[in-house]
TrEMBL record:
GO terms for cellular component: membrane. Keywords: Coiled coil, Membrane, Signal, Transmembrane, Transmembrane helix. It comes from the Eukaryota. Its main location: membrane. It comes from Pristionchus mayeri. This is Uncharacterized protein. GO terms for molecular function: zinc ion transmembrane transporter activity. It holds the Pfam family Zip. PANTHER family: ZINC TRANSPORTER SLC39A7 HISTIDINE-RICH MEMBRANE PROTEIN KE4, ZINC TRANSPORTER ZIP13. It is found in: Membrane. GO terms for biological process: intracellular zinc ion homeostasis. Residues 1-17 form the signal peptide. Residues 72-102 form a coiled coil. It is a multi-pass membrane protein.
Amino acid sequence: MMFRLLLFALLLQSAHSQLHHVQGINHPGAGGPDIGSIGIARGLGGDGLGMESDHSDGLVDPDGRKIIAPLKKHTQRREEQLKEENEKIRQILEASKKLTETRSSPLSTWLWTLFGCSLLISCGIVPAFILPANASEYFHSTEGKSKLNLLLSFAVGSLLGDVFLHLLPETFAAPDADMVQIGLYTIAGLVSCLIVEKVVANTEDSQHQVCAVMNLIGNLIDNFTHGLAIGAAYQMGVKSGLLVTFAILLHEIPHEVSDFAILLRADYNRGDAIKAQLLTATGGVLGACSALFMHTDALASSGVSWILPFTAGGFINIALVQILPELMEETRPRQNTLQALLIIAGVCTMGALNTLLH
């Protein structure tokens, strides 16, 4: 009986020591993990906070317990949502851009553009109505030749002003302007005119004819770029289109006077000069229609890189190589003074118009 009581006391003491050991592990001051804290942490990881259990989303305290940082995961999710929203906005903008580029211009835009082109055409034939009826016979006389040389002097000045104060500055101002490329295109325009003159022109009269034809070609290209600008401007609105049309008309009026002087020098009568000017004006209509069909002014911006400097080179050749040497043959002091003044007047006119328009 005593043996059984002793055995029961030993078993009771052993059970009590094991229970005390388990309580020590669960105590917060002990070195082991807190089972309650782990359970709470797991509960937070499974609810709406959506925390992960790895160390990338939280920190571990010195006791080995994880301190979860919920703001980090929330920030990551917010960034993903913003990326998705930006992608949707980009897709919507691309679809809107394609729709804008493919839709046709309204009828009102076409009518306003044609109105601007008609003003450009009328500007080209206005100088014909201020010339005398017998202009071709008059400019063959001694007095008429002196008057024609004065018009040609103004033509030299306006051509040089157009080149160095309008065409080349506009080309250099383009966002993607390449200085070397612009120089090469300008030289190409100058040399092309020289080659044509050397191959075709054998006499003084033929040289005058070639000069007139090359000037008409240069005007045709120049009017094409003007038409592009008019068409693109009217797509932006009637007010923008009218402002651009007015600016081009102011720029073209002195230039058209120069064109008529060059045509008269080549023995064009008034009727033939009008027909030639109407022919070059079709370049403006083609440019405007191209801008409306494409529904963009991309052609205008791409044409700046080569059309304008090439045209500038041709105008330099016409002014300095084909017209100015003929004016230098004048020996009368008064006539030389008037020619020099008109050359300066042509440059100043183009400079004043460009300053006013800008």
